[in-house]
């Protein structure tokens, strides 16, 4: 499924449509009633880890004011402002542009909105649609996905959009391979979102230093929201840590190094995505590491939970044995 940087990119595509009226909702989804989206204003947009949230309401109001989200620890930032990245700034600039645009639109359509409000007889609560994307999930703005290659029969099967939202300015958003459900409020906790400026390092380090293998903890969305399998593989290679090493075997410096690589890698990945560029992988899906060593591959995960394909280099990421067994 798309990892944090991809979902954040989807957010930057959806965000410019905030403030507009949905003139038509279509798509192949059977999970939601498309009628619930027709003639609703797209009010707000939020992202948390691998989830995207879009808010709809019958009246046009200032986005952001009605965010009754689970933003429990927002504002308790412990992150060094120096760690604010280029991609943060790009996102902030985009949000500012959109915010200005929304103000203009809001003023221009206030008359219409008031009329609509009158018809609606009072304000409805915002309804939030949560998107959780599948392996090849994506969002496209003002374009549909095209088949990348023909199948064995030579047919170019165009993927079907689960949801297509057409807006009053003529633009549209198409959502592919995603689960959708209505929620009363978005769940966001920026302190555990690796792409948030308020990501809490201390909390993340505390989770990492537990006795569980680090490759299990890194995929735990309670502490590393948005961190997925590609990021996990790459940062453990950069940090030179074997994926099955229990966090409790690692010294503070190594744990800090894993965290630094996680923040740097995700931020770079997002930066590249916003510029339409890909990311070169060091170990993920590779046969050999950049130093030419043979790479190992196995399906790893906690007992009873999802196991994920994991790649590592036994030379660059040697196994660490418990201290008391190294020198008996
Ligand atoms: Zn190697």
Characterization of the model:
The protein is α+β, with helices and mostly antiparallel strands and 328 residues long. It folds into two domains: 4-183, Alpha-Beta Barrel (N-terminal domain of MutM-like DNA repair proteins); 200-326, Helicase, Ruva Protein, domain 3. Helix content is 29%, strand content 19%. It has eight helices and eight strands; from the N terminus they run αβββααβββααααββα. The chain has helices at 4-14, 86-108, 110-120, 201-208, 214-217, 229-239, 252-274, 323-326, and strands spanning 22-26, 41-48, 51-57, 127-141, 163-167, 172-183, 296-300, 308-312. The strands form two sheets. The protein has a six-stranded antiparallel beta sheet, covered by helices on one side. Strands 7-8 form a two-stranded antiparallel sheet. A hairpin with a 7-residue loop joins strand 7 (296-300) and strand 8 (308-312). Helix 1 (4-14) packs parallel to helix 7. The longest helix has 23 residues, at 86-108. The radius of gyration is 22 Å and the shape is globular. The model is unreliable at 71-84 and 109-122 (pLDDT under 50). The structure holds zinc ion.
């Amino acid at each position: 499924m798309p990892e944090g940087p991809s979902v954040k990119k989807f957010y930057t595509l959806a965000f410019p449509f905030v403030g507009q009226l949905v003139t038509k909702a279509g798509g192949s989804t059977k999970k939601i009633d498309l009628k619930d989206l027709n003639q609703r204003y797209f009010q707000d947009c939020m992202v948390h880890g691998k989830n995207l949230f879009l808010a709809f309401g019958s009246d046009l109001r200032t986005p952001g004011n009605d965010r009754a989200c689970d933003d429990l620890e927002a504002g308790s930032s412990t992150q060094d402002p120096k760690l604010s990245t280029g991609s943060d700034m790009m996102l902030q600039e985009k949000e500012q542009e959109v915010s200005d645009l929304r103000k203009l639109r809001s003023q221009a359509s206030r008359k219409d909105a008031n009329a609509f409000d009158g018809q609606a007889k009072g304000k409805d609560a915002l309804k939030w649609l949560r998107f959780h994307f599948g392996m090849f999930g994506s969002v496209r703005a003002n374009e549909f996905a095209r088949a990348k290659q023909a199948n064995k029969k030579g047919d170019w099967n165009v993927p079907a959009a689960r949801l297509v939202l057409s807006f009053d300015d003529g633009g549209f958003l198409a959502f592919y391979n995603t689960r959708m459900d209505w929620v009363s409020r978005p769940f966001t906790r920026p302190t555990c979102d690796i792409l948030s400026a308020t990501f809490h390092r201390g909390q993340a380090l505390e989770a990492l230093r537990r006795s569980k293998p680090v490759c299990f903890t890194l995929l735990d969305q309670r502490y590393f929201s948005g961190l997925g399998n590609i990021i996990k593989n790459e940062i453990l290679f950069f940090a030179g840590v074997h994926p099955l090493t229990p966090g409790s075997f690692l010294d503070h410096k190594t744990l800090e190094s894993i965290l630094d690589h996680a923040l740097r890698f995700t931020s770079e990945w997002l930066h590249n995505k916003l510029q339409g560029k890909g990311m070169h992988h060091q170990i993920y899906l590779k046969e050999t590491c950049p130093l030419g060593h043979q790479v190992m591959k196995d399906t790893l995960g906690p007992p009873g939970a999802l196991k994920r394909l994991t790649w590592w280099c036994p030379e660059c990421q040697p196994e660490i044995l418990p201290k008391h067994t190294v020198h008996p």
